[in-house]
Amino acid sequence: MSVEKQMAKHPESFTQEFLLGGKRRLYRRAIIMTNFKIIYYYTKSSDTVWIVDIWDMRMSPDRLMGRIK
After folding, report:
1. Which residues neighbour 60 within 8 Å (Cβ) at sequence distance 6 or greater?
2. What is the pTM of this model?
């Protein structure tokens, strides 16, 4: 199953993004290629997946934490 289809059918099946653990939302990550991952959160009330970033994992983790408010 592709990442897109899995995210649409089972958005809570991906791993929590621990770098963003102190934020008010539960962010999850889906690795899409060797060096890239999708950062997103899911709201049950509206049954919506919100993609907030496509992250190049070769970059510093501090930059990711600064990009996501």
Report:
1. none
2. 0.87
- Please write down the HEC assignment for all residues of 9-53: HCHHHCEECHHHCCCCCCCEEEEEECCEEEEEEEECCCCEEEEEE
Q: Is the pLDDT of residue 69 over 80?
A: no
Give the whole-angstrom CA distance, residue 10 versus residue 67: 26
Distance CA 67, CA 38 (A): 13
- Distance from C-alpha of 58 to C-alpha of 49, rounded to nearest angstrom: 25
Residue 39 near residue 52, CB atoms below 8 Å: yes
Residue 23 dihedral angles phi and psi, to the nearest 5°: -85, 165
31 touches 37 (CB < 8 A): yes
The SS3 of residue 6 is helix
